[in-house]
Amino acid sequence: MFRTIFQKHTNKANHADGKTAALVLPPVFAALGFMEVRYSSMAINISDDDEFYQQWLRLNPEGYVLSLKKSKAITYMSLHRSICSHISVYDKRHPFGAFTERAYMKVCANSINEIESWIKDNTNDGKITLECSHCNPRDNAAFYMKSKHSHTEAEKFEKEVELSKKRTSKERMSRLSKASSKPTRSPTISYTYNRNPDVVAEVLNRAKGICENCGKSAPFIRASDNTPYLEVHHKKQLSHGGEDTVKNAIALCPNCHRESHYGKET
After folding, report:
1. How far apart are CA 152 and CA 190, in angstroms?
2. pTM check: above 0.70
3. What is the DSSP code (8-state) at residue 212?
4. How confident is the model at residue 45 (pLDDT cuts 50, 70, 90)?
5. How many alpha carbons lie under 13 Å from residue 156 in its C-beta half-sphere?
6. What's the rounded Cα separation, in Å, for the pair 99 and 54?
7. How many other C-beta atoms can be found within 10 angstroms of the C-beta atom of residue 21?
8. In this structure, is the dihedral angle defined by the CA atoms of residues 106, 71, 14 and 101, taken in order, positive or negative?
9. For 202-220, what is the mean pLDDT?
10. Residue 43: which H helix or E strand, with range?
11. Cα(244)–Cα(198) distance, rounded to whole angstroms?
12. Where are the alpha helices (DSSP H) in 42-139?
């Protein structure tokens, strides 16, 4: 995994020795308004900057994070993978700013060895006091069994929307008055399933333009090929171990498809 961190404007992060890394701007990210901070094989300490911290997480999905309390005597140090939802997803217990701007700070690195070197250099005989049982930072087999249930960016955003709904309109309007009208952009690394096109074609042929859930005709005709518009949905999601087969697939109208993903179970 490349060892780079991209940050907006003048945010800073420090090496273990307290020195700020040199800034370099690669052409591919210039249009995004990002500055690049390139690090050697060292852990960095991120404090009081959740936005920068979240950018580091997105750019280092195979990295590791040490969560520790801001205090002179460091007694609590919890190790996580960088994609662990416990140190990345905002919720009622963890509102925006909770990860680095309040009681905690984070040490981020591309390997556990780098984390342990930081501990050796910055604490008095300190050691990792807890290893997250949710993301299993040292157990790759256990982690990949759980990773099929990990939070996607869309799921994280939905949780943030749910948190916003719990605020009053006055609180939201106050936050909006201070927020930028231009959304930031973040490079991401994602994996997609290479689906079998024959499964899609056969399921659509079986449906004959009728939603296989509600029994209604497709809501409109595709402009590309003049066929009824239905969407093929896997009954058991591929990310949850479902098979890419005709038996595990169903043709749905857009409404039923959204309901299958977001509707309340009865």
Report:
1. 9
2. no
3. T
4. very high
5. 17
6. 9
7. 18
8. positive
9. 96
10. none
11. 10
12. 50-59, 112-122
Residue count (the chain):
266
Q: What residues pair up with 231 in beta bridges, in sequence order?
A: 252
Separation CA 20–CA 236 (nearest Å): 48
Cα-Cα-Cα-Cα dihedral of 247, 253, 254, 260, to 10°?
Answer: -50
Amino acid identity, position 162:
E
Burial of 99 (0-12, 13-18, 19+ CB in 10 A): buried
Confidence of residue 149 (pLDDT cuts 50, 70, 90): very low
**H or E element: which one contains 130?**
strand 130-131
The residue that leads in pLDDT, 17 or 207, is 207
- What value does the mean pLDDT of the chain take? 79
Taking the C-alpha atoms of residue 76 and residue 215, their distance in angstroms, rounded to an integer, is: 57
Q: Mean of the pLDDT values across residues 116-122?
A: 90
Question: Tens of pLDDT along 68-79?
Answer: 999 877 888 999
* Pairing verdict, β 64-69 and 77-81: antiparallel
